[in-house]
Amino acid sequence: MIPSILPTPTETDVARRVAAELLDFAKETIATRGRVVIGLPGGQTPLKLYEVLASEFASAAPWSEVVITFGDERCVPRDHPESNQKRLHDVLLDRVDIPEVNVMEPIGPEVTAEVRDAAIHKKIAADYSAALEQVVGEFGSLDLVLLGLGTDGHTASLFPPALESPSPEPLVVPTLAPKTSPVRARISLSYGALRAAREVWVLVTGGGKAEILSRVLAGEESLPLSKVIRDRVGNVRFFVDAAAAQPPRR
Ligand code: 6PG
Question: What value does the mean pLDDT of the chain take?
């Protein structure tokens, strides 16, 4: 199944298109489920989207019925420069009227240094998974997950090679980023959680992602994002700019 690709000329167009579609989706879901649970990615790609949501859409979005969870997080203190929590608060969450209880914070104040202890790492993942189970409750899955794509094919903090998942699989798992990453200990929505989400929207911009995007769309098995979208029941949409949509130079 080739997921729908929605190329738009620039990354600002991508941000504006995703923001508008996100608003529509949120309103539809709130009308039927009373709230919408959205997983948000870290990284650079979604920053323009967050800026659009915090400025042009700040008053338009039904923030009191929006629940935000993190697609993944680095296990560092909440004020650490590598923290997705810090960045998302700075660029979006502290700029809109979303109730504090609607934001599922993955890292608590007890984390005062980068986590290197395996038991602590596992506990952070298990606690976040349990909290997310509570939130998704009877529906059992997130309504929408926005994802980025790393040049190695990783998404959230699920890194290649995409291995078999345990069954049953928790909603959130501890993972280790490659040794070259600034922070290795991560937590991430699991393959099971991502595949069960009603909607998965992937944001890919910039010519540097053209090659990996083409490999994902070709279904390369070892790539985590390929595993997330393969034979999915729910909707998969790719929001890409013209540069990322360029067929890679072979
Ligand atoms: C993270 C993200 C990660 C990101 C990709 C792409 O915590 O870093 O969740 O999965 O989406 O690494 O990152 P860029 O958008 O910066 O290219």
Answer: 95
